[in-house]
Amino acid sequence: MKQRLDFSFEKIHASGSRQRPQRQGSLHAYQKSESYQRQVGFVCLNCGHAVPSQELYSGVNNRNHCPYCLFSRHVDLFQAGDRLSACRAPMQAIGLTFKKERKKYGSKLGELMLIHQCAGCQTIAINRIAADDDSERMLGLMVIGPDLPQDVQRCIQADGIVVVGDDQLDLVKTRLFGKGV
Amino acid sequence: MYTCTSTCSGTIIGKSKSLFTTMIAGQVHQSQLAQSLAKNMKDPMDWPAIGDQVELSIQVDGNYRIEEILPRRSLICRRAVTGKDGSRPAAQVIAANVDQLVAVMSITRPELKWALLDRFTVMAEAQQIDVLICLTKSDLSEELSDQAQAAFHQRCQLYRQLGYRLQFCSVRTLMGIAEVQDLLQGRISLLLGKSGVGKTSLLNQLLPQFARNVAGLNQVTGKGRHTTTSLQWLALEDHGAVIDTPGTRELGLWDVMPEELAGCFPEIRSFLGQCKFRLDCQHSEEPGCAIRQAVVAGGIDPYRYQSYLKLREEWG
After folding, report:
1. pLDDT for B4
2. Nearest to B296 among A1, A21, A121 (CB)
3. Is B88 on the interface with A (CB under 8 A)?
4. What pTM was estimated for this model as a whole?
5. Is the CB of residue B159 less than 8 Å from the CB of residue B165?
6. Which of A20-29, A52-61, B240-249 has the lowest mean pLDDT?
7. For B186-220, b where at least 16 C-beta lie within 10 A, e where not — what string?
8. In degrees rounded to 5, what are phi and psi of residue B175?
9. ipTM above 0.85, yes or no
């Protein structure tokens, strides 16, 4: 028999809670669950806004950041959607980049993406922009992007990400507002 | 009124409604619960379970009556699967006085579910019993892609590092069968695993005298066929025994409080009490959580941490 932590005292004295049926589906737990956040929405860690997840609002299948303050959350570790990261810290949008597309007839520059940096472990990640993202705030990132600290810029370059600079302002505007603007 | 002539002790090795198959001095007898004991049975966990040591009285007519259930060393139970009516969750006792939980998992066909293995290990840790992980169908490992094999061996190494014994075996090539036989000797082992992983096939190799029915996987669904339908106590030669069980499709934990769940993960246990909120930390979103920091630093495997969170979520 293994000698491990002895919970016998707690078991005897917490018999009341032990009799409590194992709850499945309490409202608080449901609101915290991944399925709720994926289907209904979530509350932004940074600005506290309630953010709906429906594709109707965001125009993307997976809402991964707040459209108001552009903050995200560090939840994925190895690949998008694995939810294996234990960091869970807020991720601040620090710039814009273009991600190369595999589409044959897609843009040569690629899709406009947000660059996020984790406030906890400094991990860099890129995320798709959504239709209802605050455009003014995204244009503001173009100003911040080139002035990022050297160590952050090194991290970004190490991941093979190229930060969008002022010279690409027209292109970014086209992506955000269309050709007619 | 029944008249008792003498008393004896025995082990419950099978049950069917009100009749209990009991091993008394190497002989198998049928016994019933004494009325005085039956009156006090209010909880499913109070009833005699397979593996229970009991005191019996021998009646004048030769019948045996269970008068007392002796204190249990361990009790393996799960949350009973409830129907669609949403009735109250209840406990389903699997076996008592088990020394070792044998988690039987197939490398492939059906697919290996690591989360289910984590449930088995938590169940065993909560009862402070040993775990033996039997990875069956090891002759089929070449069916896995190179990437899947690398990930599989990495996970195996993780469980070895956590202190669990892993044994690869195959009933086709007879690989690892002798080692499993050695590990079962002299103790009461409970075999648990999904349907179709080869629990009974493994037992048929180890104990050919019992020759229990086995069946292949369903070719359409790729799942097991639920061939073993009841618990069976299979006695070994040297006072040990193996309890064969039907396939486990889902395994809800019972009798594991959320506060003690983290203690059932050996790698998390060493960090308990080091969080900012000490033992009140739930290790999910609290600031200053030592366990989350350990996961980020690589001290705890993220998949195991994810298993912990999922089990914790079941409590709501």
Report:
1. 67
2. A121
3. yes
4. 0.82
5. no
6. A20-29
7. ebbbbbbbbbbbbbbbbbbbbbeeeeeebeebeee
8. -70, 130
9. no
